[in-house]
Design brief:
By secondary structure, this protein is mainly α. Helices cover 68% and strands 4% of the residues. It has helices at 3-19, 23-31, 42-46, 58-75, 94-115, 125-145, 149-170, 172-181; strands spanning 79-82, 85-88. A two-stranded antiparallel sheet has the order 1-2. Strand 1 and strand 2 form a beta hairpin. Helix 1 (3-19) runs antiparallel to helix 2 (23-31), helix 5 packs antiparallel against helix 6 (125-145) and helix 6 (125-145) packs antiparallel against helix 7. The radius of gyration is 22 Å and the shape is globular. Bound molecules: heme C. Residues 58-59, 62-63, 66-67, 70, 107, 114, 126, 129-130, 133, 159, 162-163, 166-167, 170-171, 174 line the site of heme C.
């Protein structure tokens, strides 16, 4: 048992003993270690306090985490043919692909951030879109890992559809803003 683990237990006890007096049971469970019965789950279930720090609002998650990461993905995939000529936007080096893969990981994990109970306004469509965001982010990660341009482009499109679908359902004004930016 590391000192920090002990501190964690103490911290937990400090909070829970005042409320429910369940701390003694928890410490006994740890003291006898492997021969003891696993601690009953009542301890966790009784805890109404959140384990997550959800100070950031959904709006901040959008503008500070999700949009910057997905913008990099969208700027890194595709083919442009204009007056200036033909240009491929995909990364051309291993480092470049590693970088976009990391942005895809941010998109994938942001799906989880949005799905936290404190952030989800409901347990239906919101969770479907949040999970959809994670799935699309994982697809982009896979494509970046295998440097598959076609698959990376498609994953970018899938990410965009999830953004739009959720905005349509929960904040149509945002969709209009996106459209007018195009
Ligand atoms: C699970 C639902 C959901 C998904 C998925 C989602 N959004 Fe949002 N988004 C929202 C909601 C709700 C708001 C409005 C938040 C508010 O104003 O309180 C919002 C707002 C925004 C805003 C405006 C932020 C501001 O500062 O006003 C941007 C930009 C944005 N989203 C970008 C994205 C992008 C890019 C994606 C996809 C990569 C995405 N969102 C995916 C629900 C979602």
């Amino acid at each position: 048992m590391t000192p920090s683990f002990i501190r964690l237990i103490r911290f937990h006890c400090f909070h829970s003993i005042r409320k429910k007096g369940i701390c003694t049971f928890l410490l006994i469970g740890i003291g006898v270690n492997s021969c003891s019965k696993p601690p009953e789950t009542t301890d966790l279930q009784d805890t109404t306090e959140s384990h997550f720090n959800t100070t950031l609002s959904n709006k901040q998650i959008m503008s500070l985490i999700l949009e910057p990461a997905s913008d990099i993905l969208w700027d890194s995939g595709g083919w442009v043919l204009d007056a200036a000529g033909y240009e491929e936007l995909f990364p051309t080096t291993d480092d470049g692909w590693d970088y976009v893969r990391a942005q895809a990981a941010i998109v994938a994990e942001t799906g989880n951030l949005l799905a936290l109970p404190e952030r989800a306004p409901d347990n239906d469509a919101w969770l479907i879109y949040s999970n959809g965001l994670s799935d699309a982010g994982l697809l982009a990660m896979d494509a970046a890992e295998s440097k598959n341009e076609e698959a990376f482009f498609e994953a970018g499109g899938q990410i965009y559809s999830v953004c739009t679908a959720c905005h349509q359902a929960y904040n149509p004004d945002i969709v209009n803003r996106f459209d007018s930016a195009d």
